[in-house]
Structure formats: structure tokens, C-alpha cells
Amino acid sequence: RTRPPTFCKRMCLHFLTPLTLFIIAGWCAGNIRDEYVNSVVCTAIVYCIVIWIINSCWRGRKKRVMVREEILWRLNRRETKIKKRMEEQKERLMLGGNMGTTSLDGLVNAVESEE
After folding, report:
1. Tens place of pLDDT for every residue, the chain, 115 residues?
2. How many helices (H) and strands (E) does the chain have?
3. Long-range contacts for 24-28 (Cβ within 8 Å, ≥24 apart)?
């Protein structure tokens, strides 16, 4: 099981890294003398910021989808196990007669009454 990222990691990923890139672009805009190189470098750094943000959103979405799929898979697996146990118990009751009731018998009867 993975843990969610800490507050510090989220601050670094979503705030400090884009801010650092923006500050570098500003510094380059003020200190690069050649107009063409200045324009190219600042534009490239600003595009890096945009790509960083889009990439972070994509990775976060991918992780959330994976977590949802895992939760649904576990729920489905649990549901199939419960159904299998109920079917086995039902078969035992049919074959062996009603020799006594167990706690699972009440569960089987409750589920059958809902159906």
C-alpha cells in the first residue's frame, strides 16, 4: 500500500518547481543581452512550466485511476468470495438437510429473502 504524498512533496511538485522555473525565466529575460537568444530561452522556460503542469496533472490522474481500479477489483473479489461461500452453504443445506443453524445460515436466508 502506498501512502499519499506529504505536504512538503506537494509544495515542491506543484508550487516551488513551477515558481523556480518562472523566476529563472524572469532572470534570463533581464540578464541575456541578445534579443533573439533572450526570446528563445524565456519562451522555452515558460513552455517547460506548462509542460510540467500538464505532466503533473496527467500523472496524478493516472494514479487516481489505478487506485480506483484496485478498489473496484478488491470489492469484486470480495463479492465473488461471499457469493461462493453462500452457494456452498446453500448446497450443504440442500444435501445435508437442516441439521442445525449456523450464523452463516441466517446470512443465506437474509440474502435469499432480499432476492
Report:
1. 667 778 998 888 889 999 999 999 999 999 999 999 999 999 999 999 999 999 988 888 888 888 888 888 889 999 999 999 988 888 888 887 555 555 555 555 555 554 4
2. 4, 0
3. 25/49
Tell me the C-alpha to C-alpha distance, in Å, between residue 88 and each of 57, 79, 91, 95: 47, 14, 5, 11
Q: Residues near 24 by Cβ (< 8 Å), separated by ≥ 6?
A: 45
Please, are residues 49 and 22 in contact by the beta-carbon 8 Å criterion?
Answer: yes
Which of these, 6, 4, 8, 20, lies nearest to 52 by C-alpha position? 20
